[in-house]
Amino acid sequence: MTIVNSIEELKEITQDFSRYSVGFVPTMGALHEGHLSLIRKAREENDKVIVSIFVNPTQFLEGEDLDKYPRRDEADIKICELSGVDILFMPSIDMMYDRDELSISAPAIRGFILEGTKRAGHFNGVLQIVMKLFNLVLYNRPAKLRAYFGKKDAQQLVLIWQMVKNYFLNIEIVPCDIIRDSDGLALSSRNVYLSKEERSKALAISRSLKRASKLVMQNELNSAKIIDEMYKVLSELEVEYIAIVNREFKQIDNVEIGDTIILVASLVGTTRLIDNIWI
Ligand code: AMP
Question: Which residue CA neighbors atom 5 of ligand 1 most closely?
């Protein structure tokens, strides 16, 4: 594995990549099994695997956890090495951004509901950095580029699909299932903020989604009723939103099997967690 810390080096080392299919996994580091599942899939499906680790400042809002976001470079490097990654790209902020940058705006509706309401501007930053990383990985025109994203960040995934479509990017986006701990908690780099007590409280989030999926299996498809039941399971948490949307992220009155995502965002203590299921 080669660790690459500069853009010139990345261009150089990928010079002959036009002969290869490339799997790209963008991350913010503090890697866990969720990230690893993306890397494994990329490894299985491509000749070359590139992972990036970059804690992107433009997607953090004022007062969010940019400064305390977990950074574990040494462990991450080991994990990537052991997982058969070919190139680990770890750029600095100065390399990725000018002082006076042009920006990308997330779509006015889908980019500013749910996650985009509480975190207005968050997706502008996400799309901006993902576009930059895509362009770097596309620089030497790989034979095929696949980029791997977790369904855990469902709205992000849908917006990236849209960006690829709107900007005519030659990239296949591969959605990857949510990886959970054995007790159901969706893995997240932010889980390290939880105390023992908070962690056990946080389990209500995945339980509420399980409850929703059970209701759907029992043929209860009414969104309002499902949401009511989910609130009961989440009664001890400070819920930010529960939403039932289709794959286009439009709120729907009734679950449509095969085209529905049920999402929860909640505070657990001071930690904000998100989770969802695709039905
Ligand atoms: P992050 O480092 O949080 O920016 O995440 C990098 C990628 O890993 C994103 O595509 C996430 O959706 C994905 N990811 C994070 N947690 C999980 C998880 N528990 N299961 C599957 N994918 C995940």
Answer: 27
